[in-house]
Design a protein that fits this description.
The protein is mainly alpha-helical. The chain is built from 3 helices and no strands.
């Protein structure tokens, strides 16, 4: 009924909002990594070593393809 349709639309909006916020966070994080690396004149391999991750994982982080973990 109408109540179910309303509830579903609220759920969809929340999912889209949360997804958009995650995408924005990933983009900001990747820009911060890139800026830090360039300001310190590091290669991606050197930056990966300093971050304690593999070069491939660092590349994915800088490209915004992975979710940042705050731990």
């Amino acid at each position: 009924g109408p109540e179910e349709i309303f509830l579903h639309s609220v759920q969809v909006r929340l999912i889209l909002q949360t997804g958009g916020e995650l995408m924005a966070l990933k983009w900001r994080f990747s820009r911060l990594l890139y800026t830090w690396r360039r300001e310190n004149e590091l290669t991606q391999e050197e930056a990966a070593e300093r971050c304690g991750v593999s070069p491939r994982h660092y590349l994915d982080m800088e490209a915004g393809r992975v979710n940042p973990k705050l731990s």
